[in-house]
Amino acid sequence: MVNRVLLRGFLAGVLVLLGGLVVSALPRSSHPMRSSVLVALRDAEAGRMLGLAVVLLGLGLLAGQWLALCRHVAQVPAEDRDDALALVRHAAVVWSAPLLLAPPLFSRDGWSYAAQGMLAHLGLSPYDHGPGVLSGPILQAVDPRWRETPAPYGPVSLFFGDVVAGTTGNPWMLVVAHRSLALVGLALLAWALPRLARHTGANPALASALVLLSPLMLAHGVGGLHNDLLMVGLMAVALVVGLERSWMAGCLLGGLAAAVKLPGGLVCLAIVLASLPAAAGLAERVRRLGAGAVLAVAALLGTGLVTGLGSGWVHGLTVPGTVVTPLSPVPMLGGALDWTAGRLLDLAPATFLDLARLLGMVATVVVLGAVALRWRSGDAAEAVRELALVTGVTVVLGPVVHLWYLLWVVPFVALLRLPRLGAAALMAVSVLAGLVAPLDSSLHGAYLAIVLGAMLVAALTPVLLLTRRARRRLERIAAARWLPVEPSGDVATRGQRGSQLVVHGEHPLDRG
């Protein structure tokens, strides 16, 4: 059964790769574009629809095999957990392999990464110049929307892009190099998740399977090669180091995560709270939070200094917020108010949009402050919960939301004590976020393909999630997320302070 699931997952990746060559943006000068068959498929709407169908078939097959593997891991006896974890990690390698040489899938961001790295290699600051100052193949697949905008990313990925641009100018090879950086993030998660699971009482193998093999991860993290995967991998490692080694070292690693993308620094809040005594007072919290912030900022600014890229990324932080996506509740509300007011009042454009974004940022800061000053301290399990909360709030109330932003949240939610319905919802979101990945700008205006693709997703969803058999499968996986065994010494000690989830062999889901 296991070998069959591994093989089908690999074939699913092959289908996503083949279909992705049709629906994804490619440089005109790239080697695949020399194929007359591929060019004909890409030029015809019927061809792009066929490519979309192949991608969706691959993602649907991947979702089915993911659920099957999660069910298998959930049924493994406690004494075989290490073997189950090894299986999950092996599956992550096998399922990711077909996508290693793929172009950036379902987003053009990877092409921007390549161009920004080339800017740095040529001595032009990506924080002062957009990719539009370049010419040639490196620019051909960059989204026109971002050609004149500075990079909003920290210096880590830009420095990496600078280094690899010194070895090749081929944009395809550059994005493959950036995918290897994303896979480093996946490897960091594979190392950190089982260790965090021991602190929360979650099943390490199943928590790893829920994160590393999900359609969300394979489509957006590996296929889309977004910097977010490296960021969240560093966040998870920082939290492990902060809990098990030194809170100061954890905060330094949190600063390194922020040097990939700024939200990575949120992990420092959880690390500091876990390092405090259980009854820490306000003054002690403020002192420790201040010290943690100093360490994280020092790591962030130090990375810019060492790489020579500086801190110009601060000026680029507003770049992602120049667009409004359908997944962004706060900007969508502001846009709706602007549309209504425009028919009733004489207001400047985007009045309510800008106000809504400002209020969203204020609300985010208020939540972060409340967590920092009032949330339970001295508890490793609560630290994971705190991190899931603050990343979730930052995404929901942020100025822009993309599907891959869920990568910030899902790895930590997968470790939490959730009711069966909540765990099933987590898996449903991971499936749907993966299935709808192709239905974006990568289809080059093929609106009929988008509509038909949405209909196909709607048809696949009941089969994968809503049938009676699927619901039973999800419930069995959800019910097995917590270990019905006595926790190890460190976790048990923390449990004495009030949040231990697994005690004396009792299954947490059986408590009222």
TrEMBL record:
Keywords associated with the record: Glycosyltransferase, Membrane, Transferase, Transmembrane, Transmembrane helix
Lineage top rank: taxon: Bacteria
Similarity comment text for this entry: Belongs to the MptA/B family.
GO molecular function annotation: glycosyltransferase activity
TM regions (residue ranges): 49-74, 86-106, 172-193, 205-223, 259-283, 289-309, 355-375, 387-409, 445-466
Species for this entry: Nocardioides nanhaiensis
Lineage of the species this protein comes from: Bacteria, Bacillati, Actinomycetota, Actinomycetes, Propionibacteriales
Pfam families tied to this protein: MptA_B_family
Membrane topology field: Multi-pass membrane protein
Name of the featured protein: Polyprenol phosphomannose-dependent alpha 1,6 mannosyltransferase MptB
Localization per Swiss-Prot or TrEMBL: Membrane
Classification via NCBIfam families: MptB (NF038066)
